[in-house]
């Protein structure tokens, strides 16, 4: 099986690299579209993250796994910045980000509306000249040509669905087991928020073209529907199996009743493809079905990649289908590495839209091949991927203070002990601490690593290290398995400190999930064949 996968990867990567180069050459020749963005950040915001650069991301998709092209501009001593963006089209959705220098160089999206399941993005068009002022709490104020679009968006993004009274009542209903009532409350809150957002949009209607108005209206409706679907899944995942089943039953009933009237059945293609959230909403709607009706306990991702993939492939057509297929790979490739790899050729043959086939090829190039790392150990000796040729590598990424990292390290003991005398298996930990002394103290503590592991770190670069950026690692712990010939075997092997459905293991009992441990060992053993 591993040999077959390696052959598939070789053929895919060779064709992908060639096509990737040719497309990039053709893009250089394409016409560029410019937009100027200037701004001022509150010094309090700059100090909070110790950041001296602002990053503007052009988003083709808006889920949190999306990467997109990133442009940066230095923040001057006067707290000002200026940047000229080259857009791939006549318009684009962008997000504003900083790097948190005080928290391992993590990308932080600047906003004041709290955490979102989707990126908060803003539409800019060729010819816009935007000036933005951002205060210390993340409040945006735009001025200049085209700024009314961005002010409107910021205002409707900041309608709060999670006010204390609402959260408190939902918690009460949850404790009482009144799940249907809880769902009804949440969905009415979303409907009310959607109505308010649309009223904000209507107040700008005379300033916008019909195209912009309809696009924003679809964004608002799609965002609300996405929020509803995401809540259905969360309802079905509780701390105990009994409560989970009760919540799941209520969620399924609500899901089925919501299918009777589809408000998105007749959306014009010119808006559906341009919308920031429409395709993401459709994907979440399809994924929710598989999350609720899963048979293997995989409530987060469904039971298999292929069932979700073929549902999208067969239910949609044209560029919207291609975008949905790309989102499917983008969001789920880590969870279904081998299965998604086997369907890449089918996806590329299916896709007719060059934009999304190119994005998928780019994803394959970055996420389905091993990165040739060069990392120092505690003595300063550099370790490279190539020196471990012929060995199966288990990479474990962590940072000091990560409680889940400590949990995983403890749970991995039986796995590491099983291969202690096998010279063809090596366990390597990679720490993203920027402070070397902190890293070394954590190794000595024994809380994060094993005595039988090779301990490396990102040489003070933290999350900015090319290895971390290549795999788009933003959450910890994270593990990878690399085969004897340097091929990726899994970018998300089963977490042995979690149950198969993703729940933490109760304290006071065996801290290793036997089911996930068997699957983890099976992956290693297959790689040794």
3D architecture notes:
Pfam families: Thioredoxin_8. This is TlpA family protein disulfide reductase. It comes from Pedobacter alluvionis. This protein is α+β, with helices and mostly antiparallel strands and 529 residues long. The protein is built from 19 helices and 16 strands. Strands 2, 3, 5, 6 and 7 form a five-stranded antiparallel β-sheet that branches. Strands 14-13-12-15-16 form a five-stranded mixed β-sheet. α9 packs across α10 (305-315). The radius of gyration is 24 Å and the shape is globular.
Please summarize what this structure is.
The protein is α+β, with helices and mostly antiparallel strands and 529 residues long. 46% of the residues lie in helices and 17% in strands.
Main beta-sheet annotation: 5 strands, antiparallel
Question: Which geometry do the CA atoms define?
Answer: globular
- Outline the low-pLDDT stretches: 1-5, 25-31
Q: Beta-sheet strand percentage?
A: 15-25%
Distinct helical segment count: 19
For the termini, the CA-CA separation is 9 Å
Arithmetic mean of pLDDT? 87
The helical percent reads 40-55%
Which radius of gyration do the C-alpha atoms yield?
Answer: 24 Å
Count of strand segments: 16
Structural class by sheet pairing and helices: alpha+beta
InterPro entries: Thioredoxin-like_fold, Thioredoxin-like_sf, Thioredoxin_domain, Thioredoxin_ResA/DsbE_sf
Pfam families: Thioredoxin_8 (PF13905)
Protein name: TlpA family protein disulfide reductase
